[in-house]
Amino acid sequence: MRAPYDTCAARGLGLAVLLTLAACGTTPQKPPANVPMPSGGKVKSPVRQDPTLPALPAAGSGRGGYYKDDGPGDSPPPNLRDVPDAEVRNEPYSTRSNRPYVVFGKTYTPITNNEPFTQRGTGTWYGKKFHGQRTSSGEIYDMYKMTAAHPTLPIPSYARVTSIESGEQVIVRINDRGPFHATRVIDVSYTAALKLGFLGKGSHQVVVERLLPADIDAILAARAAPKPVPSVVAISIDTPVETEAVVQPEVSTQMLPVDATVAAPAPAALASGFYLQLGAYSRADNAETGRARLEPYTALGTLGVVQAGNLFRLYGGPFSSRADAARAAASLPESTGIKPIVIQR
Predict the structure, then answer these.
(1) Cα dist. 327→111, 170, 271, 320 in Å?
(2) Which of 65, 167, 184, 228 is placed for a possible disulfide with 179 were both Cys, Cβ 3.0 to 4.6 Å?
(3) Taking each helix axis from N to C terminus, what angle separates 213-224 and 322-330, rounded to the nearest 10 degrees?
(4) What does each C-alpha distance from 111 to 42, 108, 213, 229 come to in angstroms?
(5) Residue 185 and residue 206 in contact, taking contact as beta carbons nearer than 8 Å
(6) Which residue has the higher pLDDT, 263 or 317?
(7) Model pTM?
(8) CA 258/CA 273 separation, integer angstroms
(9) What are the angstrom distances between the C-alpha of 188 and each of 14, 49, 170, 193, 273?
């Protein structure tokens, strides 16, 4: 198991210079309590309240690769997998938290413009050692919320993080600084790591994508759009009972894998590129109805129905990249009831 042992060490040392940074970027304000040592000198593992959580060595056990006393909490809250993404909003950046700073002789200049930012590298998580400590934003770090530390993204801001291995994706609030390591790009909270699928391993390769103010406006507009009345919803996934292959994956319109490849049929009707799968139907007329209803949404590209076996799949595209396809999907109002997925032909 790999956990953010050296990144936290780097932050702890670096912030002897950086007095304005905190939480995972600082030495804790209080020394952590000693882990009880039962007879025999072995560290007692905590009792897991939620059996669905990965079994991890206790914090301070010296096992599992955790840095010193970092690791999981003793009594995590229930239903952590159901914790929603960070609630995005456009807000002013902190003046104090976005000044250039130096750690281990390297100068970091936080981003304060509105340029797109995408980064790929190792994502790690930090937990109990910094739980309850003040972050670089001044907020208190809560390992059970959807937050993250990043060396240069604005504070506060939001990022979409995708695990390349699991394909899972979350939106986190950037409220802290770190990790300060050549190959590590972001430290996420315990809960974010759980939802991304790397809590037990300690790290995964991830893609970090900054949410710009325009992206946040689009997400907020989609959430505020009127919900469809069930009696007039015209588009649905028409699923035959004899197969599970047509069940539309539960992928939010704001949570599309930007670096994960989804297997797609390769009929002659689809040119090479990235597409949005917008539905799978057992009847051709239902697929055509779905296409007609989505034609006004020009950002989805050219809409087409492709038969694959007994299914009629509705696609939009092509797009030159996963990121372009993801942005097109995010523009689709939530009120349509459609949950697109990105595929590559």
Answers:
(1) 22, 15, 20, 12
(2) 184
(3) 40
(4) 46, 9, 13, 42
(5) yes
(6) 317
(7) 0.56
(8) 14
(9) 19, 22, 10, 6, 32
